[in-house]
Amino acid sequence: MTTRQRTTITVNGTRYEREVEPRLSLADFLRHELHLGGTHVGCEHGVCGVCTVLIDGCSARSCLTLAVQADGAEVTTVEGLRDRESGRLHPIQQAFIDAHGLQCGFCTPGFLMTTLELLRDNPEPSDDEIREALGGNLCRCTGYQSIVESVRLAASRLRG
Amino acid sequence: MIRDQLPTSQVRYVGREVTRIEDPGLVAGSTQFIDNLALPGMLHCAILRSPHPHARIIRVNANPALALDGVVAVLTPEDVRRLANPALTAPAGWGTHCLATDKVRFVGEPVAAVAATSRHIAEDALELIEVEYEPLPPVATAAEALADGAPLLFEQHGSNVIQARVYDWGEVDRVFAEADQVVRSSFRWNRVGANPTETFGCICQWDLADNSLSCYGSYQVPSFWGLARSISLNLPANKVRVISQPMGGAFGGKGGARATDIAALLSRKAGGRPVKYIEDRMEYLLAGFGQSWDRHYEAALALTADGTMTGLRVKLIDDQGATAEGYGTISVAKPLAAFTGNYRIEAARYDTTLVVTNRAPTAPYRGYGPPPHFLVLESLVDLAARQLGVDPAELRRRNYIGKEQFPYTIPSGNEYDSGDYAAVLDKALALAEYPALRRRQAEARTAGRLVGISVVSTVEPGVFDWNAYATVGVQGVGVPEGVRVVVDILGNVTVVVGFNLQGQGQYTIAAQVVADFFGLELGAVRVTTAPTDLAPPHFGQGGSRLGVAVSSAVLGACRKLEADFRRVTAHLLGVPLDEIELMDGRFRMKSRPDAGMSLAEVAGLMLGRSDLLPPGMEPNPQASCVWTAPGRNAPDDQGRCRSYLTAANATHVVMVEIDRDTGHTEILKYVVVDDCGTRLNPAMVDGQIQGAIAQGVGAALYEEYVYDGQANPLVTTFVDYLMPTIHEVPRTERDFVVTPSPTTAFGAKGCGEGALHTTPAAVICAVNDALAPLGVALTETPASPQRVWRLLRQAGLG
In Å, what is the CA distance from B278 to each residue of A44, A109, B240, B502, B761? Predict the structure, then answer.
């Protein structure tokens, strides 16, 4: 297990080159190698969706993806949402605050990344389409209703 | 009520739907949950767990693990026998060491542990540890625990019974003998649990020079766990420092007593290097703090011919699991706080037997006991309505405690503060369009569909007190919750509390009160958590109390500051003290409101110009207030006392449809009306309700910790433990009634556990309403498709 493999991953626009063990998950790579702690880990078996990131623009479970599998990929995490210069929150993040779409906030980065993908592909989703898109993310606090409202609010703000 | 408490001409925050000050860090991903924290030189812990439900440990050899490159320390049963004490429990004597020493009592019980330079290496090392077991016959169920000649989990007690007690409140035998109608049923509530999305985690560092311990972690009740560590690890309490990190949810089920002791002792063996342990989901599901309420009920409700409920008998056999370390025992005691629900029932009996089995120990979960109890009570009320031919809403209304009867003492001793149950019911029935709903049901039934409706009412005991748990051996009256409000030299205000974030939004509640009290912008108030050695006395989240407790404590501290600041102002302006008032953030003269000083001016003066202060006054612009619920008393021999300070209530109207072919239950309509008094932040109350409904739906329809006949757990992942997703949680229609509590500062009542008291009963009662025409009834949770399908088969369908 100790044979390390050279791996190059671009995360939120920055290119990182590291020697990693093949067994290292992408989630652990992001969290512990790159110190991007916003991607959380909830179950490590691909059910809860807390660890969701975008890999080459597609939502994926970073706990089930090995870092070496993401070699050459572009990864977007919750840290990539904020405006880098001003620190201003992304409209999706602000909508989750304004519509009370979070309580403990541990699952929230996963919901934000899934929502980012949804609204990119479908700027005006119906409630059913929102529910379909978020069906793979567990939240134990909110009961989801305010999350649907947050996504709706974000969509309307992004459409301007 | 809010206005009376706050020196402001316009309340801007308290009672308003304001966004939360906690949220920017959470949506940015920058909030420091425990696994985001790393200390220099930190090691990583992995725990070897028992594969057996019940086995004697013959030998543990951890030396091969020590030989692995990167392993720094191992912890064995021999170490903990020497260095630690068994967990304290209530009742006493049903706890074990953090590692099993003589035998294992459940699958997943820690047996040995490793600290290494990475988690991967630590887990590799576990495979090298040799453990020899001699399997013992397991006790798989409560019935087996009580059988003659049953294997014993704790041989020294000579029995698997932790406690057997019968409580008699009023003339139970008489009211049952005189009853015109008695309805009876048995119920089986299977284990469910909290399952926050973040598991437990900690970093422990044992300072070998100072012989002191620091524990960082997702600690729901930091000082409680700190005190317990001082006992389990033989340290003076002032040498244990707990630094609570923000938590990714808790719901009661966040505990790490064993893991903290393990990480602490590994740190000690590793020369004082910090040791991190992060529980994984499989460990949580096997042996974490996530299993609650494993219950067998026999219950009966007595009524007169006119439908007056007169007596309630509940016999409970409660499977606590392998030990009492998780304080699951309290969940048997808590129903005393609302035993007879919303009703004027004059007499009640509670016959309780708490047993140990080789299942995992049970722990607190949101509601902490009453949710299954209300399933029993409300199901009996529905049975009675069916037998009497009365509408279930009407039968409830007839028996409600009247709004004029408060404060109302229930037979089991607690006093409800206020309420208007009929108003809540009326609003719920109107919102649900109840008569139309019943017509829809009749039409559906005619068409052969299995549609059911429930109308369920419950009381939520709010603001717990230790006295509520005296019956299982918990000591004390009063649960102090302290805050310190600090004004700096420039007039910025910080609130120091002893608990950390968990999701309910109590930082925001604290800031709302301060901002309105001193005329500040909400965002200008900072709230911060202090370690246990620096924080005022505190408990934290639990028992639907912190919103009330923290708002009361902050208000108290603000008033103390107001008194000092008025004194400074009066002295400086050369006017009598009673000429100065605080209004809209200014300490001003009553006769000349334009003359006065701002908060910043007074604070700056206190800290920067001691020469101008009143003689003898400390330059100290900060104040502490430690709040505890007023009027609590010690219980009598039947457990009766004024325990929970507030009594919120709710009525849920639910319509479900059961698929005739598969037994799957779909929720067609979900209406909630609740009354938790003043809503300090209505959006946050709403969030608590909807979130608790999701958990209630899980408990009613999906979630279950399944064990086989040998006490082996069959649920080890989220593929087996079915957490409700966005598709299973109903879109609810909600409204509320406000009956302020006369006992709290702003009239607010505890509301954090809320709908979990009501939803399981409401969903199961609706399922049974759907099944009623078939002559079958579901008496076991959850109403999984398989379980319902079996009933349909029994009725000739499916």
Answer: 12, 19, 20, 17, 35
All structural domains of chain B = 2-31+479-627 (3.30.365.10), 37-136+212-246+255-278 (3.90.1170.50), 295-468+634-794 (3.30.365.10)
Site of tokens 């028996």: B399
Report yes or no: B698 at the A interface, CB cutoff 8 Å. no
Tell me if chain A has a CB within 8 Å of the CB of B729. Answer: yes
**B31, B197, B283, B715: which to substitute to probe chain A, counting the most A Cβ within 10 Å?**
B197
Tokens of B22: 């906690």
Report the Cα–Cα distance between both ends of chain A, in Å, rounded.
Answer: 51
Residue B3 binned pLDDT confidence (cut-offs 50, 70, 90): confident
Please give, rounded to a whole number of angstroms, the shortest distance from the CA of A72 to a CA of chain B: 24
> What is the rounded CA–CA span in Å between residue B613 and residue B616?
8
Mean pLDDT over each residue of chain A, to the nearest integer: 97
Chain B (25-64) residues lying within 8 Å, Cβ to Cβ, of chain A: 25-33, 35-36
Please compute the mean of the pLDDT values over residues B773-777 and round it to a whole number.
97
Task: Find the largest Cα–Cα distance for chain B.
Answer: 91
Interchain proximity A47–B247, CB inside 8 Å = no
* CATH class of the domain defined by A91-159: mainly alpha
A1 pLDDT tier (thresholds 50, 70, 90): low
Query: What's the mean pLDDT in B603-623?
Result: 96
Strands (E) across B192-271 are located at 201-207, 212-217, 240-244
The domain spans of chain A are 5-77, 91-159
ipTM above 0.90, yes or no: yes
pLDDT beyond 80 at B798: no
In order, the DSSP letters of B318-342 are: EE--S-STT-TTHHHHGGGGGTTTT
> Are A21 and B23 a contacting pair at CB < 8 A?
no
For residue A10, give how far its alpha carbon lies from the nearest alpha carbon of chain B (Å).
19
Question: Which of B282, B285, B289, B280 has the alpha carbon at shortest distance from B120?
Answer: B280
Q: What are phi and psi of B261, to 5 degrees?
A: -60, -40
pLDDT in tens, B185-241: 999 999 999 999 999 999 999 999 999 999 999 999 999 999 999 999 999 999 999
Amino acid B253: pLDDT = 80
Between 3.10.310.10, 3.10.20.30, 3.40.50.300, 2.30.30.240, what CATH number should domain A5-77 receive? 3.10.20.30
Cβ atoms of residues B33 and B247 within 8 Å? yes
User: pLDDT tens digits, residue range B7-66?
Assistant: 999 999 999 999 999 999 999 999 999 999 999 999 999 999 999 999 999 999 999 999
